[in-house]
């Protein structure tokens, strides 16, 4: 051990602690923003919080150059510094996130090259001295068979809002209708003590707050979530009860923006949430509560482990090949890898940097449940022997500058990883009439909800949308997205003569920002069955006036409501 490596380790830990303190300060403002209906402030806070990690990483990396006297790129020093750092964080409450911060500094300095576990915590996580406990973050209420109303009222009052409830007794009555109908029958015959437990901190996102809890008795565990909304008369109300596992899973979906939840020890919240949703991977939960950088570390470890336990080859992903991205996967892996092509297939005409900016924009935008989150990696290593010959040929043809092969190692210099979904165009080939009606409704709703969030997808072909296991339609091709307010929605000009009517190319001037909604019908080329259902549900999307009306609403400052549950589940059908 040396004094230099010790100071380097301490500087990184100080940088992490500074990051986490500012992270918490931004998060602590979430309730005040909710109570004040400061929706634009909430969106800005989300973006500011996302920027913190990179800001602190840059500051610490600059300090590292000074501390090491110019020897910061000596990897032997980093091997020692890692050991020093592991000792420093052994009793740190957030040791696992601190490890990810160390990794991030190293990757920044070495430009993501030759990442080895001897220098970083990439594959292995040094364990914490004390086991993670969720008990200190819970409020507990004992159920005696007759006090359900009192418990429900106490849970809501204990949220400690600084604005009044619109009608607390009414909301308790709504909740009790659900409790008596759906929950009491499931716990009535249990002999063990029954408790209701809620996390002490609320989850804030978009224009809602969520109280997360469970009913527990012995090994029985029933999760529930109470969405709380802000009313127009500056009060609050409970909108519904979510207790179905699928509904709660959708609330924490990969297609939604990150929550703001005040927790000094995120791992304790992750431990509780994982008990509620055991099918969710740990990395998914870290990402959901606003720790995407550590979530990326956990995802990498998950992917390495999954790959090691699989013999399945990497293949070109099913579906129509993209004009901008080369997409591949493994049949037994729930994710796809996306590599930007060196040259785009016409008529795509944009730079690779533009594509990267589009993906960065999505990361910072309110995805509203309609855009898939991505993990971005540089210099990601694979076993060349696992790649099909067809995939190798495709990589060498479409993205040779991104691929480096040395022996059995294949290195991708830049890649996005995204949740695997069934491409909508493939889903439509095999779905029945009921599924067709549902998925076409979802497709139109996805477009409308993206637009309400000031996102225009650009290329709305069916192949650019995927269907999740819950039957939701999610957009995943981002190379043409832009703010809706940047578009100019026009009606198609009427031809003035036969020559114009028969022209193979537009006879009128078309600027880059021009959009002609009447042409959206072409997206259903070859699938008239789907078009008929879509037209019956969403024909308003063909009208330029619909889009211009949305633009005016957004420019006037309106922030759309995003319900992570079906509107029919709401206690009251309010105008929003």
UniProtKB/TrEMBL annotation:
Q: Which residues does the annotation say bind ATP? A: 317-323, 338
Q: Which InterPro entries match?
A: AceK_kinase, AceK_regulatory, Isocitrate_DH_AceK
Q: Which GO terms describe its molecular function?
A: [isocitrate dehydrogenase (NADP+)] kinase activity; AMP binding; ATP binding; phosphoprotein phosphatase activity; protein serine/threonine kinase activity
Catalytic reaction list: L-seryl-[isocitrate dehydrogenase] + ATP = O-phospho-L-seryl-[isocitrate dehydrogenase] + ADP + H(+)
- Isocitrate dehydrogenase kinase/phosphatase (AceK) regulatory domain segment(s): 9-310
Q: Where does it sit, as one GO cellular component term? A: cytoplasm
Q: State whether keyword Kinase applies.
A: yes
Task: Write the record's keywords in alphabetical order, separated by commas.
Answer: ATP-binding, Cytoplasm, Glyoxylate bypass, Hydrolase, Kinase, Nucleotide-binding, Protein phosphatase, Serine/threonine-protein kinase, Transferase, Tricarboxylic acid cycle
Under Enzyme Commission nomenclature, its number is: 2.7.11.5, 3.1.3.-
Q: Where is the active site?
A: 373
The Isocitrate dehydrogenase kinase/phosphatase (AceK) kinase domain is annotated at 314-567
Q: List the GO biological process terms.
A: glucose metabolic process; glyoxylate cycle; tricarboxylic acid cycle
Superkingdom of the source species: Bacteria
**Cellular compartment(s):** Cytoplasm
- Indicate yes or no for the key word Iron-sulfur: no
Q: Give the main location.
A: cytoplasm
Concerning its family, UniProt says:
Belongs to the AceK family.
HAMAP family this protein is in?
A: AceK
Function according to Swiss-Prot or TrEMBL: Bifunctional enzyme which can phosphorylate or dephosphorylate isocitrate dehydrogenase (IDH) on a specific serine residue. This is a regulatory mechanism which enables bacteria to bypass the Krebs cycle via the glyoxylate shunt in response to the source of carbon. When bacteria are grown on glucose, IDH is fully active and unphosphorylated, but when grown on acetate or ethanol, the activity of IDH declines drastically concomitant with its phosphorylation.
Protein name listed in UniProt: Isocitrate dehydrogenase kinase/phosphatase
* Gene label: aceK
């Amino acid at each position: 051990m040396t004094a230099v490596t010790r100071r380097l380790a301490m500087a990184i830990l100080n940088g992490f602690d500074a990051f986490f303190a500012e992270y918490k300060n931004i998060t602590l403002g979430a309730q005040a923003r909710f109570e004040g209906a400061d929706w634009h402030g909430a969106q800005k806070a989300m973006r500011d919080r996302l920027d913190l990690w990179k800001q602190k990483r840059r500051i610490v990396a600059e300090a590292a150059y000074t501390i090491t006297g110019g020897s910061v790129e000596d990897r032997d020093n980093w091997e020692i510094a890692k050991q020093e750092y592991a000792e420093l964080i052994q009793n740190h409450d957030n040791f696992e996130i601190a490890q990810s911060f160390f990794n991030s500094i190293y990757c920044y300095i070495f430009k993501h090259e030759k990442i080895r576990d001897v220098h970083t915590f990439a594959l292995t996580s040094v364990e914490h001295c004390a086991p993670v406990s969720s008990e200190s973050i819970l409020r507990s209420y004992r159920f005696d068979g007759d006090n359900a109303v009192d418990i429900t009222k106490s849970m809501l009052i204990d949220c400690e809002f600084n604005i009044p409830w619109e009608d607390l007794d009414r909301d308790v009555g709504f909740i009790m209708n659900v409790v008596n109908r759906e929950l009491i029958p499931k716990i009535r015959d249990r002999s063990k003590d029954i408790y209701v437990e809620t996390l002490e901190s609320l989850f804030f996102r978009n224009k809602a707050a969520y109280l997360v809890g469970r009913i527990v008795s012995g090994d029985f565990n029933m999760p529930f979530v109470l969405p709380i909304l802000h009313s127009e008369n500056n009060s609050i109300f409970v909108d519904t009860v979510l207790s179905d596992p699928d509904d709660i899973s959708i609330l924490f979906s990969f297609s939604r923006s990150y929550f703001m939840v005040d927790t000094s020890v995120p791992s304790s919240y992750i431990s509780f949430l994982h008990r509620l949703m055991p099918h969710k991977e740990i990395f998914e939960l870290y990402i959901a509560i606003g720790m995407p950088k550590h979530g990326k570390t956990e995802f990498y470890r998950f992917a390495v482990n999954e790959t090691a336990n699989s013999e399945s080859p990497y293949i070109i992903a099913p579906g129509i090949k993209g004009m901008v991205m080369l997409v591949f996967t493994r049949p037994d892996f729930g994710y796809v890898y996306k590599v930007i092509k060196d040259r785009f297939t016409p008529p795509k005409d944009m730079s690779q940097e533009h594509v990267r900016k589009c993906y960065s924009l999505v990361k910072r935008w309110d995805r509203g449940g309609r855009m898939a989150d991505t993990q971005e990696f540089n210099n990601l290593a694979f076993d060349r022997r696992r790649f099909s010959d067809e995939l190798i040929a495709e990589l060498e043809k479409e993205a040779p500058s991104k691929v480096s092969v040395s022996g059995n190692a294949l290195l991708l210099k830049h890649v996005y990883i995204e949740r695997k979904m069934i491409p909508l165009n493939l889903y439509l080939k095999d779905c029945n009439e009921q599924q067709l009606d549902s998925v076409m409704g979802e497709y139109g709703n996805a477009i409308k909800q993206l637009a309400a969030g000031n996102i225009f997808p650009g290329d709305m072909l069916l192949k650019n949308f995927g269907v999740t296991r819950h039957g939701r339609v999610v957009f995943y091709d981002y190379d043409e997205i832009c703010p809706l307010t940047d578009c100019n929605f026009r009606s198609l000009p009427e031809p003035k003569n036969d020559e114009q009517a028969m022209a193979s190319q537009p006879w009128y001037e078309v600027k880059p920002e021009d959009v002609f909604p009447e042409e959206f019908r072409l997206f259903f080329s070859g699938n008239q069955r789907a078009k008929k259902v879509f037209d019956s549900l969403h024909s308003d999307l063909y009208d330029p006036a619909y889009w211009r009306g949305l633009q005016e609403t957004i420019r006037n400052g309106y922030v759309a409501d995003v319900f992570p549950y079906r509107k029919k589940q709401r206690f009251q059908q309010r105008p929003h």
